[in-house]
Structures are given as structure tokens and as C-alpha cells.
Amino acid sequence: MSGFLGLFKRRSTNKKSAPPKDSSAPDKGITEPSDNKRSSSRAKSSRKPARRPQENWTLDQFQVAPDPDKTRFHDFELPLELMHAIADQGFEYCTPIQGEVLGTTLAGRDAIGKAQTGTGKTAAFLISTIKALLETPPPDTRYLGEPRSVIIAPTRELALQIGKDAKALTKYLPLNVVTVVGGMDYDKQRKRINENFVDILVATPGRLLDYCARKDLFLDLVEVMVIDEADRMLDMGFIPQVRRIIRMTPRPGDRQTLLFSATFTDDVLRLGEQWTWNPVKVEIEPDSVATDTVDQKVYILSSEQKFPLLVNLIRRHKLEKVIVFTNRRDQTRKLTERLQKVGIKADQISGEVPQNKRLKTLENFRNGKISVLVATDVAGRGIHIDGISHVINYNLPEDPDDYVHRIGRTGRAGATGTSISFACEDDSFLIPDLEALLGDKLKKDYPPEDLLANPYKA
Q: At a CB cut-off of 8 Å and minimum separation 6, what does 334 contact?
């Protein structure tokens, strides 16, 4: 396939450029770009100098002993610059999803993968994408706004995290990573698109379509298409947007397509079959639905007891990095205000919080300026912050799958964590569905009396 793509790309260099067009006036509708819709402006004739590994860095500095039960990144023929970046990340052995996926996608195969959050699938599709881009040289003549690979994710937080990971893995390579998401400065992101050739574009569907509509981005030369969290795309109603994006890219077989999902529903599999060509299906079933590194418990209580219990848990155990999940934006806002009033360093992220504020809040949580992050399920997937000791479900999630993603914020990378769920008269009826998904009974108890003390008198 890479040979065919190379031929396709060489043909694209013969396109004639059209007169400059005012990109400030949006066009009605979104159609596949044609030659006369492109601007005649060219990027610089030469790329930025290739970034190289630190002087004298060799694989000898990245020793990983062979293990018959594990796959090493050394076992794949990866470029030295990429291996250097992998070593910087501290990766040694592949996770199960990485080992299974890379064995086929590095050869150019399409893939449909199922794996829970936190299993390393982001690195799997990034490594595969990076190697594919390096194996097929770009055409001698390139237009700005023509990404060679596109990765779409359902939430801003997840897209930003993928973009951050992509930059880390391309640290020593001449590949340009650009991330575009809604809720952030439109013109600043547009400027990044037009600064240099785009090799890897990470985006949320709506913002990507915005730039396509304004003729800032053209997707007809995409070599690798990645759809992450496909089940979440379905839940959030993004599939019509994703279909429009897919239609603007080359046909299945003319591009490599990688689709990942935490669950394999009939709808997800049907979409995967439509968007891929002769895919390999990789399904990694965990030993348990919820991670074994997380101690899970449920407190049975009244709704009035929730806030005192939360405050006293934080104070008595001196919790310094905890995520508290609610189900709605108004619950997140009110709970954050109450925590701040009793002197707890807390802040919130939800759909009503502007994106720049959400990013600042996440950074404050990451560096310890705040100890409690109150969030809706917008943070349930895609937020990877080390050292989260506790996840507290202030409200039980209405969708049992969200419970798994919530508690997956702790107990990551081999560390242990604790999940505490509050079940009151309003949501305790959800417990049987949770236990059915988990395949086991949750530990249920009444909270100790001393943890129900008035938090305002402490």
C-alpha cells in the first residue's frame, strides 16, 4: 500500500495552483476540495532541519532484556529516532494492545482495536502512524493545510493529550504535529496550520470540519486515518461529523485506517467495516473489567451525608490528588464552590468551563496547586495525570461503562489507587447494573460516624 500511496502522492505534485482566494469568507457547505479551490501560496521549499537523537545515542543505551512472555519495542524495526523517543518515555515492553496492533499495522494493515482506557493504545497508533509517514516520503511539492495523517478524538482533553504524546514521540524526527480543538483560539490554531507542513493533525470533529469549510485544511492526501474512542463518538452524537470527515479522505485501501474503541458494539463494528479495508481485529480482554490495581468500595448513605463524608475523607486521609466525579455541570459547579468555602483547594472542569480555563485547571491539578478536581465525565476519558490516589464518585454514573473509565484515572502504570462511590436514595438502584458489568459484587458499607461530622466545624 505504501508504494501505491507514493505513486498517488507523486501524481498530486502535478496539480496546478489557483489564484489566491480570500479564506476569511466561509463557504456554504463542505465539499471535497478540488484543485481550483487551493491557494497558490506555497510553503517554504525546504523543511525544517531534521531533529536527530542526542549525539552518540545508540540502542546500546536502551537495553531491554528479551522476555518470552512480552514483546519489546526492539522486536519491531523502528527508526533510531523513534526508539530514542520511546526510551525517553520509559517504555520497555509493549502492553498487550501495543504488541498485538503493531505486529500488523506496521506492515500497513488496517485495524479495529478494542481496549480499555489506560492500556497504551494511543502509543500503539502513534508509533504505527509515525513509521508509516517515515517510510513514504512526502512529495517534493506540498501545499500548506494538507495533513498526511489525521487523528480524531471525541473530547478536547483527549485530543490535547494525544497531541502531547505525538510531540513526545516525534521529538527527534522532522514531523510537524498540530492539534486543533474547539473552545480554543480559532485564529491561533489556524496560524499553526499555516506555519509549516502538517504531518500529524490531531483534532476534534467539529473544529476539523470548521477548518475544512474555510479551506484551511484539505484531507484528500491523508495517508493514515485514526479514529479514537469510536464508542464515545457514538455516545456523543459525533458520527455524522466523522462520516463527513471520512468522505473527504481517500477511499479505504488508499489510506490506512485505524479505529479504536473501549467496547465493540454492533454499531462500532459496523462503522469499522465501512471505514476500513480488510482490517485485522484486535480485541484485548482484561482479566477484569475494572483494573485490579484499584481498591473499590461503596458507601451507602443519604444525600445529605455526601458532602460531610467527602470533606472528612479528604481531610482525615490528607488526600492531595483526587478526582471527584459528578453527573451534571450544575452539580460540578455547586460542589466546587462548597469545597472552596470549607478551605479545600478545589477547582472544576466541565463542558461549561472555557477550554483555556480547563487547561489551566488541569495544569494546576497536575503540579499540586489544587488537590481536588471536580469533574463531569468530560474528564472520564483522556485525562492522564500521574499520582491520582483516589477517584470519588459523588454521583454514581448512569452509564455503567463510565464507571470503568472514571476509576481508570487512578491505579495507572502499575500504581495502586482507591475508588470510593457514594450511593444514596437517588442512585443506589444503579448498583446492580454496575455489578453486572464488573462481574463481581462491590464492597458496600455504611460510612463511619466520625466521617460524617459537620465539616464547617473542623
A: none
Q: Which three cell numbers stand for residue 453?
A: 461530622
Q: What is the mean pLDDT of the chain?
A: 84
Domain count, the chain: 2
Q: Take residue 153 and report the three cell numbers written for it.
A: 478524538
pLDDT band at 45 (very low <50, low <70, confident <90, very high): very low
Q: What would the grid cell of residue 65 be? A: 532484556
Q: Distances in Å between the alpha carbon of 337 and those of 323, 334, 352?
A: 15, 5, 15
- 130 plus 206 within the same structural domain: yes
Q: How far apart are CA 337 and CA 217, in angstroms?
A: 41
pLDDT at 192 over 80: yes
Three-class SS of residue 448?
A: coil
The pTM is what?
0.71
All three cell numbers of 186: 480559532
Rounded mean pLDDT of 98-122? Answer: 88
Q: What pLDDT is attached to residue 380? A: 58
The whole domain housing 415 covers 294-457
Number of helices (H) and strands (E), helices first, in the chain? Answer: 15, 14
The C-alpha torsion from 39 through 43 and 45 to 50, rounded to 10°, is -150
For range 89-114, the mean pLDDT: 92
Quick one: 100 and 208 in the same domain? Answer: yes
User: For the chain, how many residues are written?
Assistant: 458
- For residue 125 the three cell numbers come to 497508533
Q: How far is CA 306 from CA 188, 301, 310, 447, in A?
A: 43, 7, 6, 10
In the DSSP assignment, the letter for residue 305 is G
pLDDT tens column, 384-442: 787 888 999 999 998 888 888 888 788 665 567 899 999 999 999 999 998 888 888 89
Helix then strand then coil, in percent of the chain rounded to 5, is 40, 15, 45
Secondary structure (3-state) at 78? coil
Q: In whole angstroms, how large is the CA radius of gyration of the chain?
A: 24
Residue 433's SS3 state is helix
Mode of pairing for the β-strands spanning 200-203 and 177-180? parallel
The three three-digit cell numbers of residue 75, written as one number: 522486536
At 443-457, the pLDDT tens digits run 999 999 999 998 886
Domain assignment present for 37: no
* % the chain with pLDDT above 70: 83
* Separation of alpha carbons 213 and 36, rounded Å: 15
Burial class (CB in 10 A: 0-12, 13-18, 19+), 113: buried
Q: How far apart are the first and last CA of the chain?
A: 67
At residue 262, φ and ψ (nearest 5 deg) are -80, -20
CATH of the domain at 416: 3.40.50.300
* Cβ pair 312, 452 in contact under 8 A: yes
Residue with the three cell numbers 469549510: 213
